[in-house]
Amino acid sequence: MATWTPDPSFYPSPRMAMQAPPERLAYVAMLNVGAGPDALGVVDVDPSSASYGRLLRRVDMPNVGDELHHFGWNACSSALCPYAPHPHVERRYLIVPGLRSSRIHILDTKPDPASPRIVKVIEPEELAARANYSRPHTMHCGPEGIYVSALGNGSGDGGGPGGVFLMDHETFDVLGQWEIDRGPQFLAYDVWWHLGQDTLITSEWGTPDMIEGGLNPELLLGGKYGHQVHFWDLRKRRHRQTIDLGPEYQLALELRPAHDPTRTHGFMNAVVNLSDLSSSIWLWYREDDGSKSGRWAMRKVIDIPAEPADPDLLPPMLKGFKAVPPLVTDIDLSLDDRWLYVSCWGTGEMRRYDVSDPFQPRLTGSVRLGGIVGRGRHPGGGDADGGALNGGPQMVEVSRDGKRVYFTNSLYRSWDDQFYPDGIKSWMVKLDADPDGGLTIDERFFLRFDDDFRGHQIRLEGGDASSDSYCYP
Amino acid sequence: MDDPWQWLALAGLGAFHGLNPAMGWLFAVALGLQEGRRAAVIRALPPIALGHALSVLVVVAGFAVLQLVVTTAPLRLVTPALLIGFGLYRLVRGYRHRLRVGMRAGFAGLTLWSFLMASAHGAGLMILPLLLGMLAPAQLMALSLCGPGAEMTGPVAALGSAAAGLAVVLVHMAAMLAMIAVIGLAVFETVGLGILRRGWVNFDLLWAGALIGTGVGFLLLG
Known about the structure:
The complex is a heterodimer. Chain A has helices at 14-17, 124-131, 208-211, 217-221, 316-319, 413-419, and strands at residues 25-32, 39-44, 55-60, 72-73, 93-97, 104-108, 117-122, 133-142, 145-153, 163-167, 174-177, 191-194, 199-202, 228-233, 238-244, 249-257, 265-273, 279-287, 295-304, 307-308, 323-324, 328-333, 339-344, 349-354, 362-368, 396-398, 404-408, 427-433, 439-448, 453-460. Chain A is mainly β. Chain A has a single domain, classed as Methylamine Dehydrogenase, Chain H (7 Propeller). Chain B has helices at residues 4-19, 25-35, 38-69, 72-93, 107-120, 128-145, 153-191, 195-199, 203-221. The two termini of chain B are 17 Å apart. The chains are: A mainly beta, B mainly alpha. Chain B: Keywords: Membrane, Transmembrane, Transmembrane helix. Chain B: This is Arginine/ornithine antiporter ArcD.
């Protein structure tokens, strides 16, 4: 198991990781809305290959109804961190949880990375017994183990609190709840950290009973979905600070801290502003208040407005508003911390911002594909339905060198059906990120999933812009 | 006690321990890079060496006390068994490293971290065979200095052990500190972290091998 020299996909710093060779394979979570099980897909992303942009393999899960969503590696560049070094562990296993079933699958990508095999399944009962959590969501490979966020408690009642649990990166045993003192935190969604600051950050979506039946308009208009961000002492495992965006900012989701461990800022998206259906991007940063450690602060740095629309073209939930909300449901930050990609799932737009000055993001590129009203076409998308695409840019992943941007168009089954009631036809596409800030659609890359399947998160071979963390600048 | 090879071996082990990135020079480099200052590298070195030395001290003190109450014969069997056993355990079990110390560690945190890392890796155990050859002669030497027929043989012998033990810890620490200072500053100033990608060989295997090898060698030669 242990190697003689470090896994070649581990890089001490994000700067060095940007020199990594281009990925040849991508893994994608595939939700099955038919009768069969969900699957992990393997996609050929090598432009010189004859099967470029095609699904090479589908690894079916052993059960039906998992709702595969996010997933991640057992180990990554953080294994080189000096305080808990594990440099000779391999980046080899994909940890693939079912968000609905709470079942966690371990897939081995060796010996053939194009043909992963399921080697272990952790049942929900084990997760509940060991960590008292359910609905595992985000995972990050930390220096000393795998951190996983979970939306619900382990009792099976669909309630909270959600939180974070730890897994061993070699045996995959669930080690238990991470929190020692959760303070006022109750809702959970994403988790990530600033390793250089010994700070862990969590965001809020909702408990399972708030989300599994679909977006609940009553809860939404009542401001009940998550709108707070929590800052924790990563070492002492204690809650330190809550920042409330205000209840009008509903669904505080993806956390994208700067990759450079000496930088102390990051970005988060809030999906809906109740006053005008806009989406917003928030910046968190360390505020020097004279104390040794300082305090964290947050500020809204991007507003993306809703677009007026003909009610006839809108799903029932939105008709009364006569507008299509942007529904920014995912963001991704390039390894050089310079470019922020913003998925507008509602309006069907992928935006690219220059965040060299994180307080003053500059929109530099945009591509329109799908969308509730726009139904933007792909040049390589063929003529089915007149070429119109539904769904919209959603889970977005950026290559380590920052040159390629991949995304899929499905969000979460019950929510898909509310915003795209005609049934999402799922696709995965690739954009080229031009050095000047523009975005270009790669005409050769349009992967149309079989009708029962919907693509969700993408992970790239060897790592990507949201898979690794670094202890050195 | 007056065998220079023993002291050289002791210093060599200190240097060997210091060479391992997991023993602290890499931590010092990381803290230097985090602050962007060479001074931060230098500031991190003393607590790292101190924690390491404290871990070795625990083993040396334990051994010295043991030696006062039991004869050398059983120690000559227990020592290699301990080394081989611990080495095998480390080979099989690996390391978890779930310590509550991270990138914002200060002096106390670094000392604690280094103490725990050195202990978990069996740094002190590795010098046990040398202790066997150094502490007993030191006792004899202390006794002989008191002249024939001296009373208070117990305390005098203990004093001899303590002096030799302290010397052992200090020499080991000095060599370890010198090594982490040289490598830490070299990597920080010129070499760069790229070296980690190819040069960070599996010290865990090397250490387990060294522990087992020392134990086996001691059995064969001792």
